[in-house]
Amino acid sequence: MTTLPRFNPTPLLTGLTLTLGLSLTALALVQLPLPGIGVLGPLTLAMLLGILAGHFAGERLEQRSEAGLQFSRHYLLRAGIILYGFRISLADLQAAGLNALLIDLVIVIGILASAAWVGTRWLKLDARTAVLIGAGSAICGAAAVLASAPTIRARQQAVPVAIATVVLFGSAAMLLYPWLFAQEWVQVLFAQGDAAFGRLVGATTHEVAQVTAVAATLPMEAAHTAVVTKLMRVMLLVPVLLVLSQLFARDEAAGEQPRKLPVPWFALVFMLLPLINSFDLLPSAILNLLHQLDQLCLAMAMAALGFATRLSAIRAAGWKPMALGALLFVLLLIGGTAMTLLLG
Asked: 212 in a domain, yes or no?
């Protein structure tokens, strides 16, 4: 009689405990008044703590944790992306207006196309790394990088490199926009109203958290428009993932048969949640709990990713990813301003 293999939960629980501890530490640290911590945000801080832990951990701990780390990188990442949809409602999208959607569309398409073209033709980066940097800059920062990586089957070591560009230039935008809003010539340029400047902030700043930080320094109308415009950009993550899954369907290796990449079903579920959220079926206490669970899932995925990342791989990437991130930052600022003034 054949006996079934016994399931050993220890590797899974060890890895999950490790990523949970790192993510909770990151979430606690961002609440402290420490210089620079607020700029990083909990997700990036969780990844950095993971890199630090992975650097000092022994090979035995890494092997014992692998099942839980893989679970965090795969399943908790997708759960976090899905739960992100509870942050958006149809009323939010309607409030921002069609102009904000058009600006977001142009920005997302333009930045992704520029990243792919400049990254591969000029900087000689591999296409997947260039697209990851473009997705992080064009859509919603680290969350977009994490969602895009499995869709296009990017190298694991390319993910922290792409996220590093998001952190650097998203932080630059977070510091730049409040200063710009205080300038008299900017007030003249955006004389059509504070909402126009809010659309610029929401359409061009990398992370949702960074947009929120900028919004806290703006008048109410500009702040609300900035956040909603940003959430509309987040919604564009789904069609972008579907397109990318088709564009990268053919293997780069010569002689191999073309194959389709897996459809990002988690992204489709994410897109349905704003519809559900619009009916106000869940009380605010439950929604707040889901928002916290969402952040925890994404932080655990980032910690697991960081644990498997080696600093030598980031150094080996060189200056080219940062150069691409800098170029995209300039394009976001100039192109976003032009589109906002044109469609505002």
From this structure: yes
Give the Cβ contact number of residue 113 at 10 Å: 12
Distance CA 276, CA 257 (A): 41
Determine contact, residues 108/138, Cβ cutoff 8 Å. yes
Report the pLDDT value the prediction gives residue 208, as an integer from 0 to 100.
Answer: 77
Predicted local confidence at residue 337, as pLDDT? 94
Number of domains in the chain: 1
Is residue 324 very low, low, confident or very high in pLDDT (cuts 50, 70, 90)? very high
**CA–CA distance, 220 with 231 (Å, rounded to integer):** 17
**Single-letter amino acid code for the residue at 239:** P
Residue 137 pLDDT grade (very low, low, confident, very high; cuts 50, 70, 90): very high
Q: Which residue has better confidence, 140 or 40?
A: 140
Answer whether residue 14 is part of any domain: no
Inter-residue contact 100 to 229 (CB < 8 Å): yes
Three-class secondary structure of residue 88 per DSSP = coil
Contacts of 286 (CB under 8 A, 6+ apart): none
The pTM of the whole model exceeds 0.85: no
Let me know if residue 9 belongs to a domain: no
pLDDT at residue 272 in the model: 82
The parent domain of residue 164 ranges over 40-250+258-343
Residue 37 — φ and ψ, nearest 5°? -65, -40
In-domain check, residue 20: no
